[in-house]
Amino acid sequence: MTSRGTSAAPTPAELRSALGAFASGVTVVTGIDGGEAVGFTCQAFASVSLDPPLVLFCADRSGRAWPRIRSAGRFCVNVLAERQTEVCARFGSRRGRKYDGLEWDVSRWGTPALRDVLLHVHAEVDDVHAAGDHDVVIGRVLQVAPGAEDRPLVFYRGGFGLADGHRRG
Exposed, middle or buried: residue 169 (CB in 10 Å: 0-12, 13-18, 19+)? Predict the structure, then answer.
């Protein structure tokens, strides 16, 4: 058995800074609730199971879009391409109309599918687990639709890209 020692847990700022060493892809999770398209930028996305086909994402419980997507029951994970930093910023902001001037389609599953992304993962909410200030959402995959052949948008150490001079978001 290992002793945890007497050091305090990291502060949120310390944890964010430390975990910035883990590069992640960037997605936008979208849904339609009450006839209105909603969505949010999400870096915490992963495959869970191939059989049955399951994915997960983590959503801030205090966000405005996630409760509406949960209510709708279906969502689309839009995997962003390297050139889509503006889309990332648009859906990561709490201000502005996220879909204004943006090209997108309604999928056969009734969810917004953003254009020119690398991949659409269409899913329905299967399970939700409370975890601190976030929900861990397990989605049952209904369809995957590969999109553009491009490099992924990667978030690393507070900016986009892996090169030493990565772009700030």
Answer: middle
Q: In whole angstroms, what is the distance from residue 114 CA to residue 135 CA?
A: 24
Is 80 exposed, middle or buried (CB count within 10 Å of its CB: 0-12, 13-18, 19+)? buried
Q: State pTM to two decimals.
A: 0.88
What pLDDT, in 10s, does the model give residues 114-125? 999 999 999 999
Can you tell me the distance from the alpha carbon of 74 to that of 125, in angstroms, rounded to the nearest whole number? Answer: 6
- Are 128 and 56 in contact by the 8 Å Cβ rule? The answer is no
The model's pLDDT over 35-49, given as tens digits with 9 standing for 90+, comes to 999 999 999 999 999
Do 58 and 27 meet the contact criterion of CB atoms below 8 Å apart?
no
Largest Cα span, the chain: 57
Burial environment of residue 19 by CB neighbours within 10 A (0 to 12, 13 to 18, 19 or more): exposed
Question: At 48, is the secondary structure helix, strand, or coil?
Answer: strand
